[in-house]
Design a protein that fits this description.
Layout: E1 6-7, E2 10-13, E3 22-27, E4 35-42, E5 45-50, E6 55-60, E7 65-72, E8 76-83, E9 86-91, E10 96-99, E11 104-106, E12 115-122, E13 125-130, E14 134-138, E15 143-145, E16 160-165, E17 169-174, E18 179-183, E19 188-192, H1 194-198, E20 201-208, E21 213-220, E22 225-232, E23 237-243, E24 250-256, E25 259-264, E26 268-271, E27 278-281, E28 287-292, E29 298-302, E30 306-311, E31 329-331, E32 335-337, E33 341-343, E34 346-348, E35 351-353, E36 357-359, E37 365-366, E38 389-392, E39 396-399, E40 404-411, E41 417-421, E42 426-433, E43 439-442, E44 445-454, E45 460-463, E46 468-478, E47 483-485, E48 494-498, E49 503-506, E50 511-527, E51 532-547, E52 552-555, H2 558-566, E53 576-581, E54 584-586, E55 591-598, E56 611-616, E57 626-628, E58 632-637, E59 644-646, E60 648-652, E61 661-664, E62 667-668, E63 673-677, E64 679-683, E65 688-689, E66 697-704, E67 711-713, E68 717-729, E69 737-739, E70 742-743, E71 751-757, E72 762-765, E73 767-769, E74 773-782, E75 788-798, E76 801-805, E77 824-825, E78 830-837, ...
Parallel strand pairs: 1-29, 31-51, 32-51, 33-52, 38-40, 39-41, 40-42, 41-43, 42-44, 43-45, 44-46, 45-47, 46-48, 46-49, 47-50, 48-50, 49-50, 50-51, 51-52, 53-61, 54-63, 65-75, 76-83, 77-84, 85-96, 86-97, 99-108
Antiparallel strand pairs: 2-29, 3-30, 4-5, 5-6, 6-7, 8-9, 9-10, 10-11, 12-13, 13-14, 14-15, 16-17, 17-18, 18-19, 20-21, 21-22, 22-23, 24-25, 25-26, 26-27, 28-29, 31-36, 32-35, 33-34, 36-37, 53-55, 55-58, 56-57, 56-60, 59-63, 61-62, 64-66, 66-67, 66-72, 68-71, 68-74, 69-70, 69-73, 74-75, 76-78, ...
Length: 1241
């Protein structure tokens, strides 16, 4: 039975959240008192404090809650529990209470301010924080104010909302997210503002793992979401890990090891226990605080004074192999659809959906789906060291009725078949079809296949009898097209389980697949080509589901759901019991024995319902029968006679399906026997740090008293004790163990070491081991009396540090910004290394060059990218999100890593416990700068003309520009096989300038032929362009107001036309030499009406007695003739600058405003000229007077201002001539009193 308590409300449950979990609410506080704080020292010592006046204390002893008779006069907010005999609580008006194991009493307080949090390590190490920058430390004698100058220097008036302390540092936070750290060794305070700077947050609680990671819970005020942030001390980086879409605030956060829980409003709970954050709601009552025990059980406190007992009939997810059938597609990471897909005929739009993305059978997309993914059974892919191969160019038949192992099975000829019959479990390292038309026939059974590859087209997998279960260790790859897998079959007949870090990938088109793909922690499931018909479901954790091409169709019906559910549920199943003990016992001491109730064959999952067990021998136990709760029980067997004793289980309330398994000194023991002797050695070697000498280990030589059954000392004085070591896990090694500076053998009888035993039979020795792993030390001594003493103990040796780094050239970005030199392209591989480092010195801070521990092994170590810059950018995704540290690494694991994003990053790792011990990790230094692999043109706007330099048109030879400037948007991409956008290519990380856009400007119109059928010529002058950072990985280039001019030349003398001009982008490459794909690209602008024009001046003759008017007009060529350009609204003539008047009678023959005609003069006047009216102006010459006959020549002066109106008046083919005309006087004369005159011709 899984026990969960809400004491509010208090709520306890084990580290996984189970969807089938149900809770029954009972009232703990009869007055409905709200609980604000909760803490503990173990699962049997948890305390919650109330918020009433007076405030109450409740204690949980592992099975029930009890209200203490003592109360506090003030409302309480927090409690810190040191052990069963010491705890502290704080609240309103500076109130502090101390618990001594029996009673609560007031404790000296230095303040009357509202206290929000307390953290106590001992009775001489207590921290309190509160409103109005309250921060004090108690050293056992007095309180010290730590808030002022010279100490933390807290901002005035700030509320400190939470506190946490470890062995080396203390943290507290302001509500705005500013963090303060006190380093115990140096006494120095540091302030960190990264969270406050990058997020608009309200920090309510914090917790640190003690390894440089500080988790903060509260509210992100901008989207108004309950959120969890991570501040990393090494990188000084703050990133948001999780946001809830349902509630707006977390109130508490706590963790144990690598598991973190956050609690908030309306029962909101978030946890990262499965490697990624999941959200659930266990109640509707507001949760105020959370505390997590070392066993990773979480206790929640909140409102209303109720307790909730949560239980479930299902076993925990870690022991459950049922497949959830809630959705057709589910990924705890993301579902990335490059094209739209169809689910049961319903269209699902393209897009990237995250986190916890799900698509149901109706095509509805959900994020934060919070689907529990049960672990696989077995949780670890089985090892296979077999060298037996079946490689053939003809048909292969594998008929195994029992478990069998193969290295490689390969079909090397086309149209051949491998057929599996017999039903025995098969372990195959590599199964391949290497030629086209190959067929694999699977009979019902379980197949553990490390690599399954269909390498050629037209391959087929048939299910000849069902069900077939395939466990994939590394990869399932379909490399060619036209593949059918269980086509026309039922989905429950073919189940593919992807184990940790493995992947499924279909690389070519036309795949027909019927079945299920499932894995709680996979690398990815990817469909790279079009034409996929998938009948079934895909549910994975870890990596993403990716559909890269069109025509992906999935069917998943109600009948399919029923078929999946019929496979089995998470109902409890007791597989077997397991007893673990030391092979040798002593008659005067109780021998510890661990009893486990196992839910699967390898006992990687426990049966957690209560089960009563009857033990054999019948006597010698503390109690018999015993109740096993939560899967384990710690037993002791006292046997006072020196003999072999067989331990057994004779009865149990739940019958297991398998036989009892026994392990003596961690080695399988078929006899289940403990050898009890009269005397022996007892010693306990603590966990060691590799390469570091241990503190003294006490060894006791004991024997049973001749008078009682009690132990007495067996040796005194200097005695020679033989020691030897045994590698347990891993089972081999090269480094030896030193006992008190003496290197000991690795087998019996061992190496003698002199020890000095005191009168109590106790001596000390030291241990030194230059490696990691689990090792057993045996000790043996034969006294002169013939008394034989033996004993052993096992210890764990851990690396001093798992440090992450790379040693590739140019990797380090000290400044942590865009000024760093480029390192690798986003998506480009580089070697990321992890050293399992040996200890060298306590002051050591750089572990990259330390000696390593070659025996270190650990699976499923998560790799986490931490963005340093740009601020607020994307963390990106890694090619390798988890890895296995194996013996072949020899102490240094190298992964071919790639980060999908641009920027500067730290890389951290999150290992699970190592033989129950927490490992210390060190993040990489700043690595970068990562930059894009290439650009792609992602958007373009051709722009438009219509400037109409002359009103409604533009003359050939006249300058014009855009009305809408052309734009080109390019987007930065990474180097992944399926490239994705690098959204962090923004701000200072943009290394592209407008001058990097190389443009071939137009010299002709794009379409319009001229007089000689060659395209009409134009001139283009580029103006200064601009770049716009779109803050999403794309940049928009906008042309400046470029100048266009259609040349005023003979070839362009054609009818009016509308222009079309191309800007051709031939190269776009930034200063990092990142190229743009798909060039050249043209932007085609159009819309400018073009006319070929000239200016014409008419001739006129008239009487010298009358003014004489001459017309000047703008003309354009209509394709056949010149005609007046009535649309001209731009030509403004000036008599002085644009016209010249000459004749022989005017001095010098040059133009002037007054011209001589005979003895008279004429003065020209210009009208309708500024601008021309309907393309026409008038020059009017005044009458020179009677008998003043002559002329004035008129010539335009347009070359400087209106050269587009020059004509070809000399017919030389060049339009470079000024217009001319003549005004003549004297054709008519006035009256001379002549009656008649006739001219003779």
């Amino acid at each position: 039975m899984k026990n969960c308590w809400l004491l509010f409300f208090v709520f306890l449950f084990s580290s996984e959240l189970v969807l089938a979990e149900s809770c029954s609410i009972s009232q703990v506080g009869s007055d409905g008192e709200e609980f604000r704080g909760i803490g503990g020292s173990s699962d049997s010592n948890v305390i919650a404090v109330g918020h009433n006046t007076p405030a109450s204390f409740y204690h949980f002893d592992g099975s029930s809650w009890t209200k203490h008779s003592d109360t506090a006069d003030k409302q309480l907010h927090d409690v810190s529990v040191v052990n069963t005999n010491l705890a502290y609580a704080v609240g309103h008006d500076g109130w502090i209470m101390q618990f001594d194991g029996t009673n609560w009493a007031t404790f000296s307080s230095p303040t009357t301010e509202y206290l929000t949090s307390v953290w106590a390590e001992s009775n001489s190490d207590i921290w309190i924080v509160g409103k109005e920058n309250t921060l004090y430390h108690w050293d056992g004698a007095a309180w010290t104010d730590m808030s002022g100058a010279g100490e933390a220097n807290i901002d005035s008036g700030e509320e400190l909302s939470s506190s946490w302390a470890g062995s080396s540092s203390f943290f507290t936070s302001e509500k705005d997210g500013d963090l303060y750290r006190y380093t115990q060794s140096s006494g120095v305070w540091d302030k960190f503002t990264a969270c406050n700077t990058n997020f608009d947050m309200e920090a309510k609680a914090l917790w640190s793992d003690g390894a440089g990671n500080v988790y903060i819970a509260g509210k992100d005020k901008t989207p108004n979401e309950a959120s969890v942030w991570l501040y990393n001390e090494n990188s000084n980086n703050c990133s948001k890990l999780f946001s809830s879409s349902t509630e707006d605030k977390f109130e508490g956060i706590y963790g144990s090891g690598s598991i973190v829980y956050a609690a908030g409003k309306k029962g909101l709970i978030a946890t990262n226990s499965s490697g990624s954050w999941a959200e659930t709601t266990q109640t509707t009552v507001d949760l105020k605080a959370v505390w997590v025990s070392d066993s990773e059980k979480a206790y929640y406190a909140g409102k209303s004074g109720f307790a909730t007992d949560c239980s479930t009939s299902s076993s925990p997810p870690s022991s459950c192999s049922a497949i959830p059938s809630d959705y057709a597609l589910y990924s705890a990471s993301s579902i990335n659809l490059s094209q739209s897909i169809k689910i049961n005929g319903q269209t699902v739009s393209s897009g990237s959906y995250s986190p916890e993305a799900a698509i149901d059978k109706n095509g509805n997309v959900t994020t934060n789906a919070n689907l529990t993914l049960p672990a696989l059974d077995p949780a670890t892919f089985p090892t296979n060291s077999e060298t037996n191969d079946e490689i053939s160019n003809s048909d292969i038949t594998i008929n195994q009725t029992s478990e069998a192992y193969y290295d490689e099975i390969k079909l090397t000829k086309k149209n051949t078949t491998v057929t599996f019959t017999g039903g025995g479990t098969l372990h195959i390292d590599k199964l391949e079809t290497q030629k086209e038309g190959s067929i694999i026939n699977f009979a019902s059974g379980t197949y553990y296949i490390n690599e399954l590859k269909l390498k050629k087209e037209d391959s087929v997998i048939n299910i000849t009898s069902e069900p077939v279960t395939i466990h994939i260790g590394t990869k399932f790859e379909i490399e060619k097209e036209n593949v059918d897998i269980n086509k026309e079959g039922n989905i429950a007949d073919f189940i593919v389980y992807l184990h940790t870090g493995s992947k499924f990938k279909a690389k070519k088109e036309n795949l027909d697949f019927t079945g299920v793909i499932y894995g709680p922690n996979v690398s990815e499931v990817k469909f790279e080509k079009e034409g996929v018909n998938f009948h079934g479901l895909i549910a994975i954790g870890g990596g993403a589901i990716k559909v890269m091409k069109e025509n992906f169709s999935l069917t998943f019906t109600d009948d399919d759901v029923a078929a999946i559910e019929a496979l089995g549920s998470c109902d409890s199943a007791l597989d077997h019991f397991e007893l673990s003990y030391a092979a040798n016992g002593i008659t005067c001491l109780a021998s510890p024995i661990t009893l486990k109730a196992c839910a699967n064959a390898d006992c990687s999952a426990l049966y957690t319902e209560n089960v009563n067990v009857t033990l054999d021998p019948a006597s010698g136990w503390v109690s018999n029968p015993v109740t096993v709760s939560s899967g384990t029980a710690s037993l002791e067997l006292q046997h006072t006679t020196a003999e072999d004793v067989v331990v057994d289980i004779t009865a149990s309330s739940v019958t297991p399906t398998g036989a009892l398994q026994c392990f003596a000194d961690n080695v399988a023991d078929a006899t289940c026997t403990i050898n009890f002797a009269e005397a022996g050695f007892v010693f306990d070697i603590p966990t060691q740090t590799a390469c570091k000498p241990s503190i003294d280990v006490t060894i006791a030589a004991v024997k049973k008293s001749n008078i009682t059954d009690q132990c007495v000392g067996a040796l005194t004085g200097t005695q020679s004790v033989n020691f030897w070591s045994t590698y347990l896990n891993p089972a081999t090694g090269t480094n030896t163990v030193d006992i008190s500076s003496t290197t000991i053998d690795t087998s019996s009888p061992g190496t003698p070491v002199d020890l000095d035993f005191d009168i109590n039979g106790e001596a000390t020795f030291t241990v030194h081991y230059d490696d990691a792993g689990q090792v057993q030390i045996d000790a043996s001594h034969t006294a002169g009396s013939g008394l034989v003493l033996t004993g052993n103990d096992q210890f764990v040796s851990t690396p001093v540090m798992l440090t992450v780094y790379t040693d590739e050239n140019n990797y380090e970005c000290v400044s942590g910004d865009a000024s760093c030199n480029r390192f690798k392209r986003a998506g480009e591989s580089f070697d990321l290394k992890v050293n399992a480092a040996c200890w060298e010195d306590d002051s050591d801070t750089d572990f990259r060059d330390n000696a390593v521990t070659p025996n270190f092994e650990l699976n499923s170590i998560a790799v986490i990218p931490l963005l340093v810059a740009p601020s607020g950018g994307s963390n990106g995704s890694l090619d390798v999100s988890s890895f296995n540290f194996t013996a072949s690494d020899n102490g240094t694991h190298t992964m071919e890593q790639a980060i999908s994003e641009v920027g500067v990053f730290n890389f951290s790792i999150s290992p699970s416990n190592y033989f129950g011990e927490s490992l210390i990790t060190q993040n990489s230094p700043n690595i970068g700068r990562f930059y894009p692999d290439h650009f792609q043109v992602s958007g373009q706007s051709n722009g438009a003309f219509g400037d109409n330099a002359c009103g409604t048109f533009t003359y050939s030879g006249q300058n014009f520009t855009y009305t809408t400037n052309p734009q080109l948007t390019i987007t930065a991409y990474n180097a992944a096989n399926t490239a994705s956008v690098t959204q962090n290519y923004r701000g200072d990380f943009i290394k592209l300038m407008a001058s990097n856009f190389l443009i071939a400007g137009p010299t002709t119109d794009a379409l319009q032929p001229g007089l000689d059928n060659n395209l009409v010529q134009l001139d283009w002058t580029a103006a200064v362009a601009s770049l716009t950072d779109n803050n999403n990985g794309s940049i928009t280039f906008t042309s400046g107001n470029d100048i266009y001019n259609y040349e005023h030349v003979a070839n362009n003398r054609i009818a009016p036309f509308t222009n079309v001009a191309d800007l051709v982008f031939s190269q776009i490459k930034d200063s990092d030499d990142v190229p743009t794909q798909g060039l050249p690209v043209s932007l085609r602008s159009s819309g400018e009406p073009i006319r070929f024009g000239r200016l014409a001046i008419n001739n006129a003759h008239g009487s010298e007695l009358l003014p004489l008017a001459i017309t000047i007009q703008a003309e354009y060529f209509n394709g056949a003739n010149w005609q007046q350009n009535t649309a001209d609204q731009c030509t403004a003539l000036n008599k002085v600058t644009h016209l010249e008047f000459t004749n022989n009678e005017t001095s010098g023959g040059s133009f002037t405003s007054t011209m001589n005609i005979g003895t008279g003069t004429t003065i020209p006047t210009l009208s309708n000229h500024n601008p021309m009216i309907s393309g026409s102006s008038i020059i009017t010459f005044s009458a020179p007077g009677e008998d003043n006959q002559g002329f004035v020549d008129i010539q335009s002066q347009l070359a400087a201002n209106y050269d587009w109106l020059l004509g070809d008046y000399d017919n030389d083919g060049g339009y470079d001539d000024e217009a001319t005309g003549r005004a003549s006087f004297g054709l008519f004369r006035g009256s001379d009193n002549i009656i008649f005159r006739r001219e003779a011709y």
